[in-house]
Specification:
45% of the residues lie in helices and 15% in strands. The protein is α/β, with parallel strands linked by helices.
């Protein structure tokens, strides 16, 4: 059976799980948050692609007026705004890369792709800046069998030509295109321990074209408020500092590694070149 690394919840019922763990104060908060589409998706499907894309889209929605208000408050949290920064970093890094290599034959990969918004938006920005993308191919790899189909439809609806969906585990080299010039991965590292993360980064290293391939990824640091909310949703993540991310990337083979923290000091953005 395939291992969905982001599905960390074990309880059949979150309220029952809260009672068993003695988190009584979490019950009223759970029912309040459940009116928000963001929180509801987080409770229902752990760290799903829809949960992430809701943050990337940054448009409040919910069951009613209260739900939309709660959703807006969640989206305005520092930790959530920091979460969105990883999407913005991937989008902007890709746009710059596409402009720099305008007209060239390129292979761009998002893994796991979820809704490949960083690809569609990055390509749109590059085209606005005059980049020629006719020779660029875009790929999306995801383990969830329904996601590649949704990703392909989203890419088509948002003007991303030459998008190719792939179904498979990100920790298996055989699921990847033979070579990639640019790889973006946000939202997976947090669910992998150090051993699996090094395996993943090594696969990325081997897939990138030597002499210029670019990889962008992210990690997050612990914050008490956001950690409490994650615990309510039974979403278990691996926290890492910028130094931790760099160590893993160098162990995987990367020599040129740059890691920066966002303005909130929560997300670390890694850009590595082969």
């Amino acid at each position: 059976m395939a291992e969905f690394y982001n599905r960390t919840r074990r309880s059949q019922s979150i309220p029952l799980g809260l009672l068993k763990r003695g988190l009584l104060m979490g019950l009223p908060l759970y029912y309040l948050l459940n009116a928000s589409d963001l929180a509801k998706e987080g409770f229902k499907n752990s760290g799903s692609y829809a949960f992430a894309d809701h943050i990337y889209r940054n448009m409040p929605s919910g069951r009613n007026t209260l739900g939309r208000w709660v959703d807006a408050r969640l989206l305005s949290m520092r930790a959530v705004r920091s979460f969105r920064n990883r999407f913005l970093a991937s989008r902007d890094e890709l746009a710059s890369f596409l402009c720099l290599h305008s007209g060239n034959e390129l292979s761009i990969l998002s893994v796991p792709c979820g809704i490949p918004r960083e690809l569609t938006d990055g390509a749109a920005i590059a085209r606005q800046r005059g980049a020629d993308l006719h020779n660029a191919q875009f790929h999306g790899l995801d383990l969830d069998p329904e996601v590649p189909r949704k990703a392909a439809r989203f890419a088509e609806e948002n003007g991303l030509a030459n998008f190719y969906p792939h179904e498979g585990d990100a920790l298996l080299q055989s699921n990847y295109p033979s070579v990639a010039d640019f790889i973006t991965s946000t939202g997976l590292a947090e669910f992998l321990d150090d051993r699996k993360l090094e395996i993943f980064y090594r696969i990325i290293f081997e897939t990138l074209r030597p002499g210029g391939g670019v990889f962008i990824s992210s990690g997050m640091r612990r914050r008490l408020v956001s950690e409490y909310l994650l615990k309510i949703a039974e979403l278990h993540v691996h926290y890492r500092s910028a130094d931790n991310l760099e160590e893993v990337a160098r162990a995987a083979g990367f020599q040129e590694v740059n890691v920066r923290r966002d303005e909130f000091g929560i997300q670390s953005i890694l850009v590595a070149r082969r």
